[in-house]
Sequence to fold (131 residues):
Amino acid sequence: MGRSFTSLRINEPSSAFSDCNNDRSGEFPTTSQCRWLLIACASDNYNSDELVQQLVSDLESNSIDVQKQAAMEIRLLAKNKPENRLKIARAGAIMPLISLISSTDLQLQEYDVTAVLNLSLCDENKELIAE
Fold:
């Protein structure tokens, strides 16, 4: 049952573990995608309110690419900084995220669902999401 670990050699990469280096989910942004987001998250001085408002506005863009970028960044902000979860919800992100779940773009759906999931980790957001 399963793979035998005795057959693995130290110097040979296992295909089971080599997949861990791949980011098929797109969770980790490329440098060109959102360098400013990563810099902002690393800095204690960034204006997160302004950033969040821009991202919520981008969710309502006519461009699928802009919507995907915004949803991905909201998802990451909500995942990595618990204090952002309430801030994102208060900025009005929940309704646009939920409405984009029905998009025909599968990656946008994934980003939206995971953003809503991350926002739901804050108890205060659960009622807003349920409504």
Q: What stands out?
A: The helical segments are 15-18, 31-42, 48-59, 64-80, 82-90, 94-100, 106-119, 123-130. Residues 48-131 form a domain with the Leucine-rich Repeat Variant fold (CATH 1.25.10.10). The radius of gyration is 18 Å.
